[in-house]
Amino acid sequence: METVNSAFQYCDQLVRDFEKVIEAPIVTKSSVYYTGVDLGTAYIVLAVLDENYQPVAGAYRFAHVVKDGMVVDYIGAIRIVKELKQELEQKLGAELIYAAAALPPGTDSLDSGAIKHVVQGAGFEITNVLDEPTAANAVLKIQDGVIVDIGGGTTGIAILKDGKVIYVADEPTGGTHFSLVLAGAYKMSFDDADQYKRDFKNHRELIPVLRPVIEKVSSIISRHIREYPVKEIYLVGGTCCLNGIEDIITKQTNLPTYKPQNPMFVTPLGIALNCTQEIL
Ligand SMILES: Nc1ncnc2c1ncn2[C@@H]1O[C@H](COP(=O)(O)OP(=O)(O)OP(=O)(O)O)[C@@H](O)[C@H]1O
Ligand SMILES: [Mg+2]
Q1: Which of the ends of the chain has fewer CB neighbours closer than 10 A, N or C?
Q2: Residue 177: which of 152, 196, 206, 203 has the closest Cα?
Q3: Up-side HSE of residue 67: CA atoms within 13 Å toward CB?
Q4: Which parts of the sequence belong to the SHS2 domain (predicted)?
């Protein structure tokens, strides 16, 4: 279990540091800044690291410019990334030049051009476009097991063997569907249901209502890992913030399931860790 503990130690510390600098950026000068741009279905997140790859600033915005990993509002995406970039540049008193971005697994042949153009359109030099689970694993540092990224629109699955991604999949079930279930059950608008869901105080009450959709995600995981000797599940993505989701997944899949303290920023930080100064 050594690997599990040490992986989460690094991950939890990095995420904690990132949460701090979102509130209070570190403005001491760095010779270079590395930015990770995560264009998600629910959130656009920018994570900025210094020359030593330590978090110095971050910002995020709820947005609907991406659907199931595809950029559907190209102009809107550029505008938001540009605004977040400017906001962070002002706070840091420095220009952000280099960025990396990521794609859900399996969509690269379709969409890597669009993501790259959004990041460039916002004024960055793009240095890397990687797949999301590989990004997440830069933070988790898992050798063997499956990383399950339950985001807004999709659930990304990446099986690792000896630290390398050997199988990936992306399925269109995510937090958006959780909110739709709640909107129906509670007769709320989608936005109200999503907000209600994000409040940790409500999680205990929500778990029974969300159980069927969590079980569906569990069956998706089980189906994809069936032919691989996976012994452990690692959860990331905003939807995994839900208290108790890990217990249902453990029960349904019969596999020990781990999640870091805040699974929401793992992928954006992993993207930033993969940013370099070499322009693509
Ligand atoms: N505290 C919370 N409790 C429960 N759900 C949450 C919480 N915070 C965020 N979420 C949910 O997490 C989802 C967004 O997660 P994330 O930021 O990982 O997705 P994304 O990267 O934008 O989407 P995708 O990866 O599918 O493109 C939303 O559905 C949101 O409602
Ligand atoms: Mg995501």
Answers
A1: N
A2: 152
A3: 5
A4: 34-140
* Tens digits of residue pLDDT in 28-56: 889 999 999 999 989 999 999 999 999 99
**Per-residue pLDDT at 108:** 62
**pLDDT one-digit tens code per residue, 105-138:** 776 655 668 899 999 999 999 999 998 988 999 9
* CB-CB contact of 155 with 173 (8 Å): yes
Distance from the alpha carbon of residue 237 to the mean position of ligand 1, in angstroms: 6
> Residues 209, 171: one domain?
yes
The pLDDT value given to residue 117: 93
Which residue positions in the chain have pLDDT lower than 50? 1-3, 5
* Number of the ligand closest to the Cα of 66: 1
Residue 216 sits in a domain whose CATH number is 3.30.420.40
Beta bridge partners of 129: 101
The answer to the question of residue 190 being in a domain is yes
pTM for the full model? 0.94
Cβ neighbour number for residue 144 with a 10 Å cutoff: 17
* In the block, residue with structure tokens 């994809």: 224
The number of angstroms, rounded, from the C-alpha of 185 to the middle of its chain's C-alpha atoms is: 27
Query: For residue 162, is it left (φ>0), alpha (ψ between -120 and 50) or beta?
Result: left
Same domain, 76 and 201: no
Count the domains in the chain. 2
Q: Which of 252, 254, 249 is nearest to 235 (CA)?
A: 249
Q: Which ligand is nearest to the CA of 155?
A: 1
Cα of 74 to ligand 1 centre, how many Å?
21
Residues of the domain holding 50: 2-136+265-273
Q: Which atom of ligand 1 is nearest to the CA of 174?
A: 26
